[in-house]
TrEMBL record:
It comes from the Archaea. This is TPR repeat-containing protein. PANTHER family: CELLULOSE SYNTHASE OPERON PROTEIN C, TPR REPEAT-CONTAINING PROTEIN MJ0798. TPR repeats lie at residues 3-36, 37-70, 71-104, 105-138. The lineage of its organism: Archaea, Methanobacteriati, Methanobacteriota, Methanomada group, Methanobacteria. Keywords: Repeat, TPR repeat. The keyword Nucleotide-binding does not apply. It comes from Methanobrevibacter olleyae. The keyword Mitochondrion does not apply.
């Protein structure tokens, strides 16, 4: 199998929740071409699904060695850290994603979410406003924004 076929096989196995087998396919793809960030990212996110956070972060870091400006990699690394309550590290990753692609509302939404977890609700609200400006129809942003507003009112 070539690189693309192995990646497709891994993606299909992931869809079937066969994460260990998917890891094998991604690893085989990386053995063919270890300079492809998408393979490192898929391996990393699959490791994250298996609660192997440290290994996932190592794979994201390998992806970033290839391309430090890959906003998707920074975002995925941030999501992985966010999922295990490593909020300060996630926040730094979301910053890098936003710096690379400030027009992505999802990045702003998760930046707002992590700031809320860090009890920085005023800054969280600004991020959520940015997300809403970019994607005014996203109900999840509207709902979370209202939660942050309530938290700010309780602080006052």
């Amino acid at each position: 199998m070539n690189f693309d076929e192995l990646m497709e096989k891994g993606n299909q196995l992931r869809k079937e929740n066969k994460y260990e087998e998917a890891l094998g396919a991604y690893q085989s793809a990386l053995e063919i071409d270890s300079k492809r960030p998408e393979a490192w990212n898929m391996k990393a996110s699959t490791l994250g699904l298996l609660n192997k956070t440290d290994e996932a972060i190592e794979c994201f870091d390998k992806s970033l060695e290839i391309n430090m400006e890959n906003d998707e990699t920074w975002f995925l690394k941030g999501m992985t850290l966010f999922a295990v309550n490593r909020f300060n590290e996630a926040n730094a990753c979301f910053d890098r994603a936003i710096n690379s692609n400030p027009q992505n509302p999802t990045y702003w939404k998760y930046k707002g979410m992590v700031l809320s977890q860090l009890n920085q609700n005023t800054d969280a609200l600004k991020c959520l406003d940015n997300a809403l400006e970019l994607n005014p129809d996203d109900e999840s942003i509207i709902i979370f924004r209202n939660t942050v507003l309530q938290d700010i009112e309780k602080e006052e």
